[in-house]
Design a protein that fits this description.
This protein is mainly α. The protein contains three helices and no strands.
């Protein structure tokens, strides 16, 4: 039975083979680390953008509902007539309230 002992010296000697020449460490060097870091960055950015877009859409919906509520209140108080109410409601529904 042949027992091989690995000491730090034999390990260093073995590392001088073709797998470790030029600091490539079996293909997983700066190039691959850069790919993984870039992939992680893109995923985090995509999830963040989805969250921001959702919250912006929610804010636009809330603004539009508030404006329509105020318009309905003005109509209920008799400040505007039925024709003006219908006209303003149509304009509100066609308008993007992104401000």
């Amino acid at each position: 039975m042949l027992i091989t002992r690995f000491t730090p010296v034999t390990t260093v000697i073995q590392m001088r083979g073709s797998w470790h020449e030029g600091g490539m460490f079996m293909g997983m060097h700066w190039g691959w680390w850069s790919v993984w870091v870039l992939t992680l960055f893109i995923l985090v950015w995509a999830f963040w953008r989805m969250a921001v877009d959702r919250s912006e859409t929610r804010r636009q919906t809330q603004r539009k509902e508030a404006a329509e509520g105020e318009l309905r209140a003005m109509f209920a108080r008799g400040e505007i007539g039925e024709d003006e109410f219908a006209e303003r409601l149509t304009v509100l529904q066609q308008t993007n309230l992104s401000v």
